[in-house]
Design goal:
Keywords: Nitrogen fixation. The chain is mainly alpha-helical. 58% of the residues lie in helices and 0% in strands. The chain has one domain.
């Protein structure tokens, strides 16, 4: 089974780290697993494995997982923003054009009595 096929068959973050022989702190992985795996996925998508040997692919994938882990050790999920929901709520990004939210003054509200 190829390295890529093995990666596709994994189910947990720990399995990725064990297969690729990358050291990790369980307490860090417990909190950041989705962010780390998402970043590794971004690295894998941009990689070109065509013509590489299985050893070269293994080393490249190992490096990508290690880099993804380090990205979140040195930074944090809010700064890295790997998920769409975090990208959309980036305060440094200009707001998307669209209808302005309606404002209802509390003084215009009536009670039911």
């Amino acid at each position: 089974m190829s390295v890529v096929d093995k990666l596709k068959s994994l189910h947990s973050a720990e399995e990725f780290f064990e297969l690729l022989q990358v050291e990790y702190q369980p307490e860090v992985l417990q909190v950041l697993r989705l962010h780390i795996l998402r970043r590794m996925g971004q690295y894998l998508v941009s990689a070109e494995f065509e013509g590489m040997s299985e050893d070269e692919i293994f080393t490249a994938a190992q490096s990508m997982l290690s880099q993804a882990y380090e990205d979140f050790i040195k930074s944090n999920p809010m700064a890295e923003r790997v998920f769409k929901v975090l990208k959309e709520h980036d305060p440094s990004r200009p707001a998307a054009p669209g209808p302005k939210p309606s404002f209802v003054s509390l003084t215009t509200l009536k009670t039911g009595s």
